[in-house]
């Protein structure tokens, strides 16, 4: 059993409260990504699970057992850090075997594990080298290998790819995903990189100021963000937000963009405010706005400012009723309208999000 249950966790450093009454239940075999900007408390949460810091209140249960006060080595976890943390004076083989030798594991079992893991991570050719003679990607593979040889129930990763260049990061990301599929162990992974979160996670916990804002599958986080923070954090370019108000009368609900058109949002499933007008925010992702409106039911005016081509995709930046907006489309459209071009964009109510302007909560 490698379920992890965090119950009412509080962590304070001096007078500063970093995690507040945090609850998180991670099922065996899940790949949970803790996603958030710098300082939101994701490493603190990971370190609390690992037993590397003292918690102020609450419980950490691993496999059903209360491990809140257990030593890191008694928690059945393996951990991989951003900084590799390899021993420079010893070879890759020595690094991989260190923890096992300390635990007095028989030599043939150590050899068997190193053989299995080094094949899995393709580090066999470097076993006799020291870390200084390895590239960043190879070093990080060794660091992952060192966690894997322990054959832990749970693996914790703290930004393991952020010291690597973009190409290598993408390669190792795919390898980590394959690794999870192969060994099926519970993995908890900290990153501020939304692409890593979206591609690796079975569920993402989006954090802000020590609080989990949403815990859901990557699809749900992307398509049904729980609030304005989550909606704005995930996606590139970010979701378009239009300020306005909602009004519902005689079975029809409209969102009126400030100084802009009315949009019929009657098809959007929510408890529409009846009678009064409520300030709200309409969110729509750049790829859900179409320059070729076709028979899409909803329309927005758009004034082009700049166009950007990024190879496979292009983005038009501009304004809708004076508010900033962007549209993303496949480069096969070969569209490069000059600044000032007025367009009509099409979209559908299936792809929009509505938020309460004051609380930021999804409606
Ligand atoms: N040992 C400590 N003593 C005092 N404050 C700390 C300590 N460790 C972390 N903090 C503070 O707690 C907050 C959360 O830190 P944490 O490292 O968990 O953030 P993070 O989301 O992982 O950010 P990053 O991506 O930058 O590592 C920060 O404001 C940080 O300054």
Automatic annotation (TrEMBL):
InterPro entries tied to this protein: AAA+_ATPase, ABC_transporter-like_ATP-bd, ABC_transporter-like_CS, ABC_transpr_MalK-like, ABC_transpr_MalK/UgpC-like, Mo/tungstate-bd_C_term_dom, NA-bd_OB-fold, OB_MalK-like
Alphabetized UniProt keyword annotations: ATP-binding, Nucleotide-binding, Transport
SMART domains hit by this protein: AAA (SM00382)
Molecular functions (GO terms): ATP binding
Origin: domain of life: Bacteria
ABC transporter domain location: 4-234
One Pfam family in the UniProt entry: OB_MalK
Family: Belongs to the ABC transporter superfamily.
PANTHER family assigned to the protein according to its UniProt record, in alphabetical order: ABC TRANSPORTER ATP-BINDING PROTEIN (PTHR43875:SF14), MALTODEXTRIN IMPORT ATP-BINDING PROTEIN MSMX (PTHR43875)
Protein name: ABC transporter ATP-binding protein
